[in-house]
Amino acid sequence: MSKTERGTALVTGASSGIGLVTARALRRDGYRVFGTSRKPMPDTPDGIAMLVCDVTDDASVQAAVDEVLSRVGRIDLLVNNAGIGLLGGAEESTTAQAKAIFDVNVFGIMRMTNAVLPVMRRQRRGRIVNLGSLLGLIPAPYNALYASTKHAIEGYSESLDHEVRTQGIRVVLVEPGATRTAFEENLTRPDRPLAVYDAARTGAETLMREVLTTGDAPELVAEAAVSAANVASPRRRYTIGKVAGQVRFIRRFLPEAFVDRSLRKFNRLPG
Fold first, then answer.
1. Which parts of the sequence belong to the Ketoreductase domain (predicted)?
2. 222: which of 22, 141, 177, 194 fits an S-S bond (Cβ 3.0–4.6 Å)?
């Protein structure tokens, strides 16, 4: 397809932040774009059709996919962006809360993917871009459950990519580092906070706000998502931003003890 007619893209979590910026970038690149949000929203002035979709609900996911198919008959690109954060000590969350974040961040991706794979298989063509995170590559004190979901997405995406390549489908990871969005304003808090973690939790939240203030622009993530969507032979993962690239290198190639000390220093934890 030409640049003026790339195909049809479906972007989850497109009401704000990285999802909205990515949806707009894809629209400018020539895609017909459908975005999703949990609550009804009007279509955007720049031509993004908004659909209601709760990624934790099988019926809602299927209804959104069916709506796209009823309008245009195909889905060429799925961008799995919808997700939630959780900041606090791992011990401070019940298993019910842990299940809830996995239901959005991991099983939500699986639901969306399972709904579009039959469509892409019939087309013999499709691309799935999963929004991971730098925290899918490294430990994340006081973000253990969120990081766990991102580590899970890494393993799921790479494994699935090997399974569906012969069907004309590729699965790609985009791994942002700290990105300037309102992410911290939408963080979930622990459902059983413990006093022993109060000071550390407050410190972790302060650090997060500082890091996000100087983080990468969401447009940088959107550019990577567009590239990952369009290139004929995509890389397995696109790590976004200078800092994220440096951390990925350190994690892969430097001694574990050095990485451990560096991580604790960055997170302002005692040695």
1. 7-199
2. 22
